[in-house]
Amino acid sequence: MAAEEKVEIAVVGAGVVGLATALRLAAEGREVLLIDPNEPGSGASFGNAGTIAEYACMPVGNPAVLRTLPKLLLDPDSPFSLRWPALFQLAPWLVSFVKQSLPAATRANALALAGLLAEALPAWEEMVTEAGLEDLMRRNGCLYLYRRESDFAAGAGGRAMRAGFGIHQEILTPDEVAALEPGLPASGTRGLYFPDSTNVTDPKTVMQRLLGAAIARGASVKQATITRLQAETGAVRLSGPGFGIKAGMVVIAAGAWSRALAAQAGDSVPLETERGYHLEFRTDAPLLTRPVCPVDLGFYMTPMAGRLRVAGTVELGGLAAPPNPRRLALLDRGVRQFFPNLSSSSSEWLGFRPSLPDSRPVIGPSPGNSRVIHAFGHGHLGLTLAPITARLVAELIGGRGHPARLAPFAADRFGR
């Protein structure tokens, strides 16, 4: 084995949360090593819908989803599906998901998320300046489309909850939807508009600039796979094929791959994987001016630089299976309901979201070892919550954190 490296802080995982955390810590003068087996920012952080969704406090599990869950799971073309070969593995997670979808749990989960989301845009604005991202951000809002009155009625609880949390939202008439997005076909569709939402025009470039900013402030990067985490007196040892690292502190930000590392730190976290898909279509001119989500289809259509990205839906089923062509076909059929003259897709993608039954991330110290800091499980909100997560991690490491604030996101909230 090569000589063991030593570093003050190792950040395991170079998705958007890991990149933001490395940048924040390096900007505070910390010695930071960012570790990932793949190119930084190449996973779900690259393939997402590009929305900074400060409004998205409603957890995936909620009473509206619970009422239709059997139908959703049995219909292979629904926005929420699972790979049936993985059912045995997923069963404990699904049981917990059902419990977290009950009204009282839903409200508690939404309240916890709303508290984080209230700080998401200010944290992003700070990071935009720090990493030079101004040209990649568009604050044009986000539009939900309700093509069926039943879907609009089912969303009443979510609208009321967001209103109670002070989230800015506007119900639009069909004429107002048409005026906001004239490129959409006329259909008498109602809308829900979130005017404060921001989107990025190229997630890959955002990740590259975050990486560059972190390196410019002294962070280093190692392409490696961590297979073992072992706490020792005064340090944490990380190891993998052919290398070893001894870190004063470790931040686990490995997204969908975080569960095994957390377990080695002594924390049993019910993390599962949502398999996310996207298609992209080249466009000569933008077809939309902001992200648009047809609620019944469960995906976003986001205008990006020279292309339209169609991203979303939920497929539970682990990390190992190949892409499901049926899910990609579902996205293709769905977007053509709005833009039937699109050419064939120019690219397709499968990535993995780290998903917890209550839709809350895990942020905070390991209950068994304060030298291990968790920062994973952000589900659909990794891009949105990355800068505020980074700030919270940096506060913990710098002795400025407030444990009570992070209690809703503790690793042991499901029991040990």
UniProtKB/TrEMBL annotation:
GO terms for molecular function: oxidoreductase activity. Residues 9-396 form the FAD dependent oxidoreductase domain. It comes from the Bacteria. It holds the Pfam family DAO. Its EC number is 1.-.-.-. InterPro entries: FAD-dep_OxRdtase, FAD/NAD-bd_sf. The keyword Ubl conjugation does not apply. Keywords: Oxidoreductase. This is NAD(P)/FAD-dependent oxidoreductase.
